[in-house]
Inverse folding.
């Protein structure tokens, strides 16, 4: 499951909230740790979506100007 989540996170578009969080973590902790942290966040969203029966699309995150 972890492998699939890490593979999915690498294909995330650049403007999503998870990608922004991944870049923030990557600057502090490193690339691989950031990938796993973002994958864990993705799996958390999947879990809550399955539990609640409601899937919300990941909205694009507007960068601060």
């Amino acid at each position: 499951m972890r492998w699939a989540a890490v593979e999915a996170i690498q294909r995330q578009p650049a403007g999503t909230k998870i990608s922004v969080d991944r870049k923030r973590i990557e600057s502090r902790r490193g690339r691989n740790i950031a990938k796993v942290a973002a994958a864990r966040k993705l799996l958390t969203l999947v879990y809550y979506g399955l539990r609640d029966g409601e899937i919300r699309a990941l909205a694009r995150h507007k960068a601060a100007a």
